[in-house]
């Protein structure tokens, strides 16, 4: 009973009493295999896997013959934690013979550990040793789901074909995985086709599949199709659960049908379907984004009446609404309530609170929020140094010094934006332009933030390309890596200045450090190439973009069309025009 209720302390206390005290008084109370199994399972559920292994070894040393299911409990716990090496090692350490369930758990371990090749090999061994059974189907489903999430649709389709060929049942939960995977990879047509296939087999389509379809239509802005699927469920007698209602509410909110969403919430209440926190969060988020602060407050009040506790995501949406209204009192009250409720604030939370204080010019509020960040350990992100000295200057040049943990640039600069004299702040972060080595440290804190942060500081605070370059060089002199953002900022600064050779050299250095440039970097380079009419360099940049599989946007296509037009090549231009029409119909007027 203790083990089933998840009460680890009580379970283990009773087990040790049984083993160390009661069994010595009465041999009939000696722990059996079942007793050990309950204790091992309890430890595994709470992640105490080493102790579970020790009990397993103790059981063998006491002459008890463990069942394979005892081994599987431990292996499955390592699998859930995504630790394939440990899961494989424990089988060897404990000397037990694995069964089909053990192999299935190992497939899960490799999938969660992002070792897909290892998972494929284990699945092959499972099918070769144990043939087709329910466990094999579960293992195939695990790998199938992984392929769908990773977008490996060729392998995904190949595994489905293999399952059918081997006589493994493709239905039920597998159908849900197939439909959901097609939707996640943007193939709505294939998802709908599979729903029709399920119906042709005279099988019931799982409500989960319908819910996934509604989600997909909502995200694509096809509210009518989402409503049609929902109505089909109602008319077909499909059990509409809270998840499906929530998906429909979310689709309506995403497409600005707030009245329809509120009516659907009323229908949920009439049908005794409990409104969940996800649906409320979706409504609050929609109202906040459209500036309907009064409706946000109404939803919050409804949640209180229904005793539905907000999540971190819910609080973030509420904070966003108060911040948009410039209601600092509301922001503070919500933040305090959030901390008191036990919800863990995220970086998004702190960004919004700092932004609200910065807009109000409340430096004290910024300092307190930074201190709370430091207390919760959120300041130590990426390769950021643990502390730095920020100097904020007011118009009267009086200085306030703040020593605190420095978070990511996005958070820090919202604080900086609230300070009027940004030049003084820039001097805090950036080395002065003088060439004298002795003065290079003037204006710099003893512990500089991570290299890339300094480069971003230069760019964010409006410094010119020279300032970015000096900051970049100073970072390298200190033995730090500028990182992805540092190189990106330098390339963009050179491109904006029109210094194409330096920008390309920085791109080469970036790639030599195995850092993948993002689309913004390539677009800035293409913009520089078009302005300078450097067609050959532009074509080289385009080839790199293609090799790195970076998806182009409207700006990229425009730049490429311009480059080909400069070279007098009409066929590529026409091809790109057709590509744009196919991929970006909404933007066609602006583009052409």
UniProtKB/TrEMBL annotation:
<dbReference type="InterPro" id="IPR002885">
    <property type="entry name" value="PPR_rpt"/>
</dbReference>
<dbReference type="Pfam" id="PF13812">
    <property type="entry name" value="PPR_3"/>
</dbReference>
<feature type="repeat" description="PPR">
    <location>
        <begin position="241"/>
        <end position="275"/>
    </location>
</feature>
<dbReference type="Pfam" id="PF01535">
    <property type="entry name" value="PPR"/>
</dbReference>
<protein>
    <recommendedName>
        <fullName>Pentacotripeptide-repeat region of PRORP domain-containing protein</fullName>
    </recommendedName>
</protein>
<dbReference type="Pfam" id="PF12854">
    <property type="entry name" value="PPR_1"/>
</dbReference>
<feature type="repeat" description="PPR">
    <location>
        <begin position="483"/>
        <end position="517"/>
    </location>
</feature>
<feature type="repeat" description="PPR">
    <location>
        <begin position="206"/>
        <end position="240"/>
    </location>
</feature>
<feature type="repeat" description="PPR">
    <location>
        <begin position="32"/>
        <end position="66"/>
    </location>
</feature>
<feature type="repeat" description="PPR">
    <location>
        <begin position="346"/>
        <end position="380"/>
    </location>
</feature>
<dbReference type="InterPro" id="IPR011990">
    <property type="entry name" value="TPR-like_helical_dom_sf"/>
</dbReference>
<feature type="repeat" description="PPR">
    <location>
        <begin position="311"/>
        <end position="345"/>
    </location>
</feature>
<feature type="repeat" description="PPR">
    <location>
        <begin position="276"/>
        <end position="310"/>
    </location>
</feature>
<keyword id="KW-0677">Repeat</keyword>
């Amino acid at each position: 009973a203790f083990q089933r209720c998840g009460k680890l302390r009580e379970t283990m206390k009773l087990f040790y009493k049984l083993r160390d005290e009661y069994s010595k008084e009465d041999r009939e109370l000696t722990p059996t295999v079942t007793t050990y199994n309950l204790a091992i399972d309890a430890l595994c559920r709470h992640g105490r896997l080493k102790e579970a292994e020790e009990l397993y070894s103790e059981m063998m040393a006491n002459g008890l013959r463990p069942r394979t299911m005892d081994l599987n409990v431990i292996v499955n716990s390592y699998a859930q934690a995504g630790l394939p090496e440990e899961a494989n090692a424990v089988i060897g350490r404990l000397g037990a013979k694995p069964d089909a369930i053990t192999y299935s758990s190992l497939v899960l371990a490799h999938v969660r550990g992002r070792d897909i090749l290892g998972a494929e090999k284990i699945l092959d061994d499972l099918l070769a040793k144990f043939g087709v059974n329910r466990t094999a189907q579960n293992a195939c489903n695990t790998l199938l789901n992984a392929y769908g999430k990773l977008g490996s649709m060729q392998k995904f389709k190949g595994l489905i074909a293999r399952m059918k060929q081997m006589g493994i049942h493709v239905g039920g939960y597998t159908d849900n995985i197939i439909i959901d995977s097609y939707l996640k990879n943007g193939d709505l047509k294939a998802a709908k086709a599979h729903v029709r296939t399920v119906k042709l087999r005279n099988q019931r389509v799982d409500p989960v599949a319908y819910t996934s379809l509604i989600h997909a239509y909502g995200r694509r802005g096809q509210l009518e199709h989402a409503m049609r699927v929902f109505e089909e469920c109602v008319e077909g007698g499909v059990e509409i659960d809270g998840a499906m209602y929530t998906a429909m509410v979310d689709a309506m909110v995403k497409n600005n049908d707030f009245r329809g969403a509120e009516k659907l919430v009323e229908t949920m209440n009439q049908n005794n379907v409990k409104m969940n926190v996800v649906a409320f969060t979706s409504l609050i988020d929609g109202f906040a984004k459209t500036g309907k602060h009064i409706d946000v407050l109404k939803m919050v009040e409804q949640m209180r009446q229904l005793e539905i506790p907000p999540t971190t995501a819910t609080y973030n949406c509420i904070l966003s609404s108060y911040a948009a209204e410039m209601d600092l009192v509301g922001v503070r009250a919500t933040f305090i309530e959030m901390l008191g409720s036990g919800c863990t604030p995220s970086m998004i939370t702190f960004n919004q609170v700092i932004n609200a204080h910065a807009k109000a010019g409340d430096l004290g509020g910024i300092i307190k929020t930074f201190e709370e960040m430091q207390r919760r350990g959120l300041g130590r992100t990426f390769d950021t140094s643990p502390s730095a000295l920020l100097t904020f200057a007011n118009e009267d040049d009086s200085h306030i010094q703040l020593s605190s943990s420095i978070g990511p640039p996005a958070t820090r600069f919202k604080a900086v934006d609230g300070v009027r004299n940004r030049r003084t702040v820039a001097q805090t972060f950036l080395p002065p332009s003088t060439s004298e080595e002795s003065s290079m440290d003037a204006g710099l804190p003893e512990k500089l933030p991570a290299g890339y942060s300094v480069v971003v500081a230069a760019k964010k605070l409006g410094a010119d390309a020279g300032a970015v370059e000096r900051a970049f060089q100073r970072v390298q002199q200190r033995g730090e890596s500028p990182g992805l953002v540092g190189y990106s900022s330098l390339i963009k600064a050179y491109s904006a200045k029109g210094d194409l050779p330096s920008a390309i050299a920085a791109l080469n250095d970036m790639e030599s450090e195995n850092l993948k440039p993002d689309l913004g970097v390539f677009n800035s380079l293409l913009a520089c190439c078009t302005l300078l009419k450097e067609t050959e360099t532009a074509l080289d940049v385009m080839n790199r973009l293609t090799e790195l599989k970076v998806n182009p946007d409207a700006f990229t296509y425009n730049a490429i069309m311009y480059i080909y037009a400069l070279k007098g090549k009409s066929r590529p231009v026409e091809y790109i025009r057709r590509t744009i029409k196919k991929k970006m119909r909404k933007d066609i007027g602006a583009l052409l």
